[in-house]
Amino acid sequence: MAIKDITLGQYFPGNTAIHRLDPRTKLLFTVLYMIALFLANGVVSYAVLVAVLALCVAISKISPSVLLRSMRAVLIIILITGILNLFYTPAGPGETPLVAFWIFRIYPAGVRAAAFMILRIALLISCTFLLTYTTSPILITDALESLLGPLKKIKVPVHELAMMMSIALRFIPTLVEETDKIMSAQKARGANFDTGNLLQRAKALVPLLVPLFISAFRRADELAVAMECRCYHGGEGRTKLRQLRFARSDYLVLLLGLVLCVGIFLLGRMGV
Amino acid sequence: MDPILETRQLTHVYSPNTPFEHGALLGVDLAVYPGETLGIIGRTGSGKSTLIQHLNGLLKPTSGQVLLHGSDIWASKEATRAARFQVGLVFQYPEYQLFEETVYQDIAFGPKNMSLDKDEIDRRVREAAAFVELPEDVLQTSPFELSGGQKRRVAIAGVIAMEPSVLILDEPTAGLDPAGVERILANLQAYHNSKNATIIIVSHSMEEMARTVDRLVVIHNGAIPLQGAPGEVFAHESELENMGLGIPQITRVFHRLRAMGAEVDPSVYTVEQARRAILAALGKGAE
């Protein structure tokens, strides 16, 4: 598998209703969804949340297999959390252990907690991936800059942070491509990146890392010069090419997000 | 004559099963014969870089075969590794892959990976440096202190030092001044002559290709619509232009002359040939 094929936080261009939403709406909705996730504590509330996500995935036309594939990166964390919950959850009132061996006891409450925890993490990861799959990184940083705007009043350099973030995001694919290229070039000279013990492998990275760092610094330098040539001087008085504007659908989605949050909270209070 | 390197129905698809899926090569049959200088031309994105990365086993074909001396380079792990050393590949802008402390060590990287003994490595490094006209005293300096053209030649020497029987270069003269271009082409010629090596040059400069290569392969949209001696290929002016490629200026002049009714041989692509063709047309013959 080439490095290029990694889909971490990648944007899949499209023109669905979800792609067209204001990025701020998507960001806020994701946050509301996450809050709802932490308020959920029963079968019904989780079912609602799964259904909401499934609906979003369906509308966005992102293939579910892509979403599942991105889950691979965090599979171990999910499994460990699940196992810990399975063993460490104390018995519910009047429960007898389902399984008991040596010092381990598994209660029905543990199974329940583990299942919910796994589901919670999986949904958490899926909803953030869905956000990055349907929103270009530039729009996400624009949205962050706009939402964090009020912090400028207390001298937080919001624009500079957003600019740094968008530059970093912008250069991830470039660096990945560069890594791929240098790796191929060194492989053509017989370099071996995937055999040998840990020390040998670490050593094998030198022919990759040295050229990569040199070119990253060169790029940074060139970019800085190019920005200065165009009189970049920070965020003061700067206007935007893409003005973010809320449409009626954005208000509707945000309202639905709030309803979801409150609904899940109430369901949680009822314990279902 | 049997080909030294051959592809059979070579197909490569990038990012399969994602929205970015696209076929870069579609059933390419290519044969490279020992001792020839072959030119591959095609515009950006035509699939030429993908093709050459298959020739030394850096990319695995989605389907089809790559044969070196008649045997599949993907038959075993050893065969793939052997292909890496027998088919040397110099990437575009190879100076960006230099990493060692001295020029000598950088050129020695390839031979070291072949697990040769010290004396042999030393011989190869010095010989490779001589091919690209690097003076002895440069060998002990840092590659990062050299000029662009020198860095490029160090990087090429790094591949030549593995003494590949097929040497592939992707745009070896891109971004160099005319003197630098001449120098690299002359260096390659020297290597070709002394080792009887097969050389494949990828480029989109028709002028440069016209006077360097014996045979031209045109690649377009992942297939090979045209191939043959430069004169034959350049006869297809309009087809080449539809593919976003041109023909050497001198050839275009002769095509135009012929269209205007002059009795000249249109398969001209160097100044020397042009001189002879004009003299022949004037009925004087070359003196």
Lay out the secondary structure.
The complex is a heterodimer of chains A (272) and B (287).
Chain A: H1 17-20, H2 23-39, H3 43-60, H4 64-70, H5 75-88, E1 99-101, E2 104-106, H6 108-134, H7 137-148, H8 158-188, H9 198-204, H10 206-229, H11 248-270
Antiparallel strand pairs in A: 1-2
Chain B: E1 5-14, E2 22-32, E3 37-41, H1 48-55, E4 63-68, E5 71-72, H2 77-86, E6 87-90, H3 103-113, H4 118-131, H5 148-160, E7 166-170, H6 178-195, E8 198-203, H7 206-212, E9 215-220, E10 223-228, H8 230-234, H9 237-242, H10 249-259, H11 271-281
Parallel strand pairs in B: 3-8, 3-9, 6-7, 7-8
Antiparallel strand pairs in B: 1-2, 1-4, 4-5, 9-10
Helix pairs in contact in B: 3-4, 3-5, 4-5
Structural features, described:
Chain A has two domains: 3-135 and 244-270, no CATH class; 151-229, no CATH class. Chain A has 272 residues and is mainly alpha-helical. Chain A has helices at 17-20, 23-39, 43-60, 64-70, 75-88, 108-134, 137-148, 158-188, 198-204, 206-229, 248-270, and strands at residues 99-101, 104-106. In chain A, strands 1-2 form a two-stranded antiparallel sheet. By secondary structure, chain B is an alpha/beta fold. Chain B has one domain (5-229): 3-Layer(aba) Sandwich (Rossmann fold). Chain B contains eleven helices and ten strands. In chain B, strands 6-7-8-3-9-10 form a six-stranded mixed beta sheet, with helices on both faces. A four-stranded antiparallel beta sheet of chain B has the order 2-1-4-5, covered by helices on one side. Chain B is globular and about 65 Å long. The model of chain B has no long low-confidence stretch (mean pLDDT 89).
